[in-house]
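Database export, one record per block. Field names are fixed; values are copied verbatim from the stored entry.
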Amino acid sequence: MTFLAGIVRFLFWLLILSWSVALLRRAVSWMLRKAVAAPPSSEAPASGEAPARRLVRDPVCGVHVAEVLSIPLREDGGVLHFCSTACRDQYIGSTRKFAANA
């Protein structure tokens, strides 16, 4: 009987702990959202909706990233957007490799 009671007690505390962690994550997420939220600008639509962000695709890994957060690379009169400096460097390295073979 004590073995079953121990298992039930363990499961009870595991449930309490998981609920506490979930609640804490929600609270922290809510606080961070409020802290990061930009003040309303005059460019915002009158309907109260936030302005849409334009997504661009990374040519190396294919990840979509917001244009304002991307790492731009101006090349041949155009602009390429990357999700990270590693992808940008990989793209630059591959284009140099192709240029050397041509």
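Remark 1: The mean pLDDT is 83.
Remark 2: Residues 56 and 85 are 15 Å apart (CA to CA).
End of record.
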